[in-house]
Structures
1.
Amino acid sequence: MVIEERLKELRDKINEKVPAGITVSQVEFEGPELAIYTDDPKRFADEADLIRILARDLRKRIVIRPTILEEPEKAVNDIKSVVPEGAGITDIFFDADTGEVLIEAEKPGVVIGKNGATLREITKAIGWTPKVVRTPPIESTTVKQVRQFMRSVNDERKDFLRTIGRRIHREITNKDQWVRVTTLGCCREVGRAAFLLSTPESKVLIDCGEKPDNNNNGTPYLYVPEIHPLSQLDAVVLTHAHLDHCALIPLLYKYGYEGPVYSTPPTRDLASMLQLDYLEVIRKEDKKIPYTSADVKSYLKHSIVLNYGSVTDIAPDIKLTFHNAGHILGSAIAHFHLGDGLYNIAFTGDFNYGKSRLFNPAVSTFPRLEALFMESTYGGANDMQPARKDAEEKLYETVNKVLERSGKVIIPAFAVGRSQEVMLALEEGMRLGKIPNVKIYLDGMIKEATAIHTTYPEYLNSDLRNLIFREGLNPFLAECFVQVDSNELREKVVLGDPCVIITTSGMMNGGPVMEYLHNLAGDEKNALVFVGYQADGTLGRRIQKGWREVPLGRRETIVINLEIVTVDGFSGHSDRRQLMNFVGHVQPHPEKIFTIHGDENKTIDLASSIYKRYHIETHSPMNLETYRMI
Amino acid sequence: MVIEERLKELRDKINEKVPAGITVSQVEFEGPELAIYTDDPKRFADEADLIRILARDLRKRIVIRPTILEEPEKAVNDIKSVVPEGAGITDIFFDADTGEVLIEAEKPGVVIGKNGATLREITKAIGWTPKVVRTPPIESTTVKQVRQFMRSVNDERKDFLRTIGRRIHREITNKDQWVRVTTLGCCREVGRAAFLLSTPESKVLIDCGEKPDNNNNGTPYLYVPEIHPLSQLDAVVLTHAHLDHCALIPLLYKYGYEGPVYSTPPTRDLASMLQLDYLEVIRKEDKKIPYTSADVKSYLKHSIVLNYGSVTDIAPDIKLTFHNAGHILGSAIAHFHLGDGLYNIAFTGDFNYGKSRLFNPAVSTFPRLEALFMESTYGGANDMQPARKDAEEKLYETVNKVLERSGKVIIPAFAVGRSQEVMLALEEGMRLGKIPNVKIYLDGMIKEATAIHTTYPEYLNSDLRNLIFREGLNPFLAECFVQVDSNELREKVVLGDPCVIITTSGMMNGGPVMEYLHNLAGDEKNALVFVGYQADGTLGRRIQKGWREVPLGRRETIVINLEIVTVDGFSGHSDRRQLMNFVGHVQPHPEKIFTIHGDENKTIDLASSIYKRYHIETHSPMNLETYRMI
Ligand SMILES: [Zn+2]
Ligand SMILES: [Zn+2]
Ligand SMILES: [Zn+2]
Ligand SMILES: [Zn+2]
Ligand SMILES: [Zn+2]
């Protein structure tokens, strides 16, 4: 069936279900959604259940596009009169092309109303379709810039979404039935995640990360024919924003990819922030720059965001659903339903099956599941991590000890994930009197990453959401946290009172942490506290191993007198026990498990342990292999 | 290094080694060979060992191209005066482009002389480089047409060989090291053999056959991206001429392939014969024709023939060597040496590890071997075949019995392989008085296939070669064999004396065998003797299973009164015991074995049996997978 016939058929079905008198002037695929154009958006809004019923019966995600619109100036007043005062609206943007009005508010829930009642009231008043986003409680340059940029490319995006919509809903022509996964990176290694999922009809790339490695360019095997031409890729799916998963996505656009990148909304924002920072770091190191910020913009322009649980057509024979992975903000397990009940496969990305301060444990229940690709970072037989509680106790002890002797605590940490966990632990420690009230300085991109966290509290775990929404206590906004944004302030911190400093980079290869080390390493009252994994070859690892003199640049040497402490247990990954438990609990039990994203011995050990314990077929694939699923 | 520099370097090295006074005017890659152009071909011929030494030191196959040539008319006389009378020269063809003179003779050995002495004498006399081929003792239309066609495209071939030569010797640019095999067909099934061997630098396709299957188009998975664009394939390697290995090679040219197909010389001739017949059969069945005879010509034009044991560069990092596979005339195990000692992998094609009347057992010793792809046609635990001797006894008994009662024996057989085995058994039976002297009629393409066998006696086993060359007794030329080439003769055979009829098709789905069945099935004195495997769904299988009435066309029914006999043991494949023995004997022992070309349960059973007995890692791959070797 050609696409026009298909749309006509859908329009006829919609007309059957819509009450008499409501006109549907056009239906159109826009990205994964079905857009219904109507002259009567207000009456559509009147029928509270209509959209839900259409979505269920047509098995499509539905959006309503009004064709007759109120004047924006009048509409602003109408919105403000419908929405209760307390919503804290900070911006209203009208997009005449889509008939959408984007409302930015401090309390999006108030704009939405119970079960969307207030949203419907807005439509009834003005005809426009409202969309609501949160005003970041901490100002975020990234969020602001992403939102501005997305507005500026609105017209292009509309064309893009229509093109993609029609591609997604194209007719299936090949009669063969098979499902394959090709490993383009991240097998028997950590880094450069890239997996190609293919059927006779479609091709989807899952992640496209980098691997910091001096001997190599650190790119996945993008030169092999399996993935070419890139223009024929249907979709890129991004599990989360860490660079080993997202760094090289803009490179795909440079090489000719023109399709969408699906991710959760926070992953999109974090990824673009980290990609730009990645370019900055490479530029400073005088290495070859793989792509430019223009390619990051291409990525954003082609991004399509999906929330957890939303089942979405991304190719004629592939439905994608994201589920919470518990690893970092917005991190997702990507579940693919292939064909009409033919096969189901999930890629965990990085996941934490334990509960953390920020996130719920990773989801382990799926409607169906035949094959699972799971990370194995801590897959080795002895890769046990202390309980989170014990880790926090050790952190408190260390902080108490150092502050007592009037020292300063330096905590090198990744901007995204680890920093926020440590922030929350320290904030609670102070609130509950377990550690003294001192300033906690945040340097590097930590503040910015934290701001993005506060923009998406829906992605945090239930305890933290309750704290924020019910008790009105957003720990990220606590007074103890001070952003270091100038050299003057950095100097004051160094010279000032005992305090805690959380700063990038996490493995001490560059970043503001070097400045603190330079000034504070000589004094044995201070302490350097590692809360994250220090990779081989990094300065962090060297200091951890006991080096007492480290080079700074080419001329200087820093003498390490300060105390060195390692606090394990703040990891965003499942440890060995949690990985095994996840496999034991995952519903339904998959037929095949592939262990990836881990050192060679760990992926092999985990695969054979899973096979022995659960009698599930396992593989520890190598890069550049293709496995047939069915 | 660019190719021009490389050639200059080679030329310098050659000049160092060549005695003073011999000028080398040019060196050039021509296909896998290095062509040395010289004004002094006669002096080159004087230095008996020079070419051998150059080949060894440069690790290249060397050909000498004279630049100054004697007039062909005079040269003919000179050749005839140099070559001894008994050679039986039947044709001489001068190719001024390459400076080669092609001598067709009944006894090529006499033209060559001991260790090539006579050939050198020819060059010394005329300057031209002689190449010798055998005059088919039985006239072969195929051989004649192939040779004529190759002459007619001489100019194009010269360009082609230079282009390929330069491609083969191009500089290696990629620094990665890996070797992969992608299965495009023939896994857990018999038919449509197609395996892609790839490295970062090169791609080689091994076989490209069809699978007779009504539900499917029977083509390997040529639509997957791994093999595209076809124009970037470095080489196609053909193990042998059966249609499940060669039928779709011409299709590659239709789809844009422009590179060489490597095979032994008899495989090239047999393949083109069977491909043309394949087109004819499809045309008669009113099915969609996949390609035309023009594509078969493209294949021939791009074919490069190699003899067993000749180590040949086919890509910058791949050397190919063919070894006897014992299966049919020219059948080869293809051994690939990858990189500079990086990896070695062999594809058995179809092979027979037992000795047959025509061929020596398959070669099982290789210089090096890490991975082996082996056929599993008879890989099932119970797939034992009777000894060849017992099979022949049973055939003799049957023939005796039928002839005694004045009946006729119909033996349906494949044109290539099985027919010649049965011919030789029957001829010896008559010669030694084990069965009566009657006519053995050959119908269908059997005579033509036999003629091709007699063109290449070097490819037959040592006993048969001795019989032919030492004892001057070519059993294929025995008087008992009579070609049926007209309807009149066919009628005479049917009405005539007791006799044996060997005729195509082997599984009785069409071909002249139907005519014999039509006329002889009603008489219980006659017998139908199956010597080959009858696949499910064929008329042969039905009759074997006991059907006593079979349809002929749409209107007629044949009543089966004649005796039905099955004689197992004439197979060209190794049976289960021989497959296991082959693995036990193969030197050196490979690290990995892949069982292919067999029904699903047989490949799986063979793989697990090999693992249990020999502790070698085995896989029974599925189609569309990619295995990383290193
Ligand atoms: Zn991660
Ligand atoms: Zn990761
Ligand atoms: Zn064969
Ligand atoms: Zn075969
Ligand atoms: Zn395997």
2.
Amino acid sequence: MNYTLSNIPERDAKPRERGYTMAMDKGLSLREVEDFLEVAGDYVDIVKLGWATSYVTPNLKEKLEIYRAAGIPTYFGGTLFEAFIVRNQFEDYRRVLDQFGMTYAEVSDGSLDMAHDEKCEYIAKLSKQVTVLSEVGSKDAEKIIPPYMWIKLMKAELEAGAWKVIGEAREGGNVGLFRSTGEVRSGLVEEILTQIPFEKILWEAPQKAQQVWFIKLLGANVNLGNIAPSEVIPLETIRLGLRGDTFSHFLDMEKPC
Amino acid sequence: MNYTLSNIPERDAKPRERGYTMAMDKGLSLREVEDFLEVAGDYVDIVKLGWATSYVTPNLKEKLEIYRAAGIPTYFGGTLFEAFIVRNQFEDYRRVLDQFGMTYAEVSDGSLDMAHDEKCEYIAKLSKQVTVLSEVGSKDAEKIIPPYMWIKLMKAELEAGAWKVIGEAREGGNVGLFRSTGEVRSGLVEEILTQIPFEKILWEAPQKAQQVWFIKLLGANVNLGNIAPSEVIPLETIRLGLRGDTFSHFLDMEKPC
Amino acid sequence: MNYTLSNIPERDAKPRERGYTMAMDKGLSLREVEDFLEVAGDYVDIVKLGWATSYVTPNLKEKLEIYRAAGIPTYFGGTLFEAFIVRNQFEDYRRVLDQFGMTYAEVSDGSLDMAHDEKCEYIAKLSKQVTVLSEVGSKDAEKIIPPYMWIKLMKAELEAGAWKVIGEAREGGNVGLFRSTGEVRSGLVEEILTQIPFEKILWEAPQKAQQVWFIKLLGANVNLGNIAPSEVIPLETIRLGLRGDTFSHFLDMEKPC
């Protein structure tokens, strides 16, 4: 840090199991990736190449190389997995992962209907090849999954081999964990946490109010995802109680003065 | 593309008459232009230097040179045309176009009152000097133009020499084609399309929901404009059915599995 | 300017006492700072390193050097001052200002409770070390300060040594001067201006509609702050009547044609 402040919440250091920040790259240039890592490389744990943007971005190999050199793992968004599945191209997908040297992958079913047994089979198969993040929750605002079902799905996916489960929110933060207004479905989150260890869940929380909500509930070291590259530094200050939104929260807990 | 997926909607290749993506540069640095073109140069067809930003940006000549070298035509936003007209400086405007080597120009009347005959005269005059895009629709949310009038204006402007007509939405996407909430005036769009060929219209659609709406109605090769530079890659995935929003749309049409 | 337009509102030239544009850097990379200054260096007067982002950004010294070389003063956001104060580290804060060669500082009480006498003492002490901007208004949307109190606080802070007083709006533009919807509390602003000279006030106005409102009320040379780096060029066009929002406003005043 650039100077010393007392009573800052403790942050696990990288590499860490909790306090993960997952950022979303939806088409950065090589120089923009370098700039992002110059500023936020110490704070970001993993980068998702959003949905199937990797299909069209012309700089994919070089970009993955920059992230690799910086020690930041990357993975393709779950929509890409689904795009291969819906076309009966699962084996092609596995080859693409190898071809680009991917060590992580996401399994999701946000844009298609898939039996949950089948989803768990994909998780099991892929987890022999890469580290799997699996995602629970629909991208369709009309599909409301009740809390007991979120828990059942998350448990089964972790047992099938998922390293962490992701709570779906999209880039916009308006489905899944969130109402269409962006408001957190708080009862849902609290019930999930009675059954699933919080370090196993990566919460998608692209909007600042959502990040604040999770940090107030679960502390500085909650796993948060779908963070825009330019918002990783702001998020880190929220984690540390150094932005207005959480300024009093941590001080009240620790009574520093 | 970086890998092969079956059943992807067909996209016309550049240079193309339909499937245009017009991006808006509202003050990029030279390096940002280079970064933008590295990532999105294959997908963007034309770049608008938003409204009259060209008056104040200090890097104008060098920037135009970068776009030119990449084969991407540029034009000044229609508000600049109007700024010259309202000051009785039309001949100065023509000289500015020549001075900067512009080969496209926009004629609009979104911020001032102009008889439509007069507007068509400007289109006719300028179309002898450059390729003209003309814009229909007011920037004023209070001015509601009925559908038959949109059609009459568009027809007259194409006849006067406009290469394409633009449906106004502003950078915010909340006027003209759209209600103040950003919702598409869908009846208006459908009625226009009964009379004007869709390849002659460039729809301003800065918001994702608007892009999705047009792509679902008119397909992957609809002309869309006022796209932020960082949103050209996301838009391309929406056109190809590779983002959640249009994932099922094209598959349902083509029944790939 | 790149070409000549008649009847453009007069803008004070830099260095200036009015017409200030304060931009917020919330974690730019060094190259992004260079890009920002290439485009907007002629228009931005001062840069705030937002809230306590300076605590976590790894490139702080080098970044400050770039701004310094370009002649753009910088200061740390008021939340950093408050973070030191709430920890009883005021003397550490003074040393940090010296260590980084800061010549400006912000004194605020948006995230903590502080007697106003105490705030004015901090302003008095710091104004012997640096040029002080002090901020009035809470970050808490629940705390409504009546107009007579805004005036009383602003007067006292200017008398205590503040160079300018800032009207609080946050990065989001939804508290203090603004209702939670972002709408300007216009009666409040008008009453303040009956008592405080407008060149002494820097209005935080991150949203375009807010910038437009202030420019229509107070003219091209109003002091505006919390402007995103990429919005400095757009703001300059609004000041000059060269964007739709203020296009007619200045023309109607000056009757150019």
